[in-house]
Design goal:
Layout: E1 17-19, E2 26-28, H1 34-55, H2 57-66
Antiparallel strand pairs: 1-2
Helix pairs in contact: 1-2
Length: 80
């Protein structure tokens, strides 16, 4: 298994939410969900390499099934 660490710099404040059990309520998250990061990365990748992905079935399988993104947590003043 390989890991890649990267820094996400937002252009404006983010609000990530999760629906609560009660209808019509939401809970704000204190992190960026890995699924949201994966969606953004995949969108950028597809914009640039869609033709390569359609030609290479192994690459497509690896990206869609084997690539995982963990949640991102804020860092204050450059430290953890």
């Amino acid at each position: 298994m390989k890991y890649i660490n990267f820094t996400i710099t937002t252009l404006e404040p983010l609000k990530m939410g999760s629906h609560n059990i009660s209808e019509g309520t939401a809970l704000a998250l204190d992190y960026i969900a890995g699924s949201a990061i994966r969606g953004a990365v995949m969108e950028a990748y597809l914009r640039r390499y869609r033709a390569d992905l359609e030609r290479n079935k192994t690459l497509k399988l690896n990206l869609l099934k084997n690539l995982r993104f963990l949640n991102a947590y804020p860092v204050a003043d450059g430290g953890l």
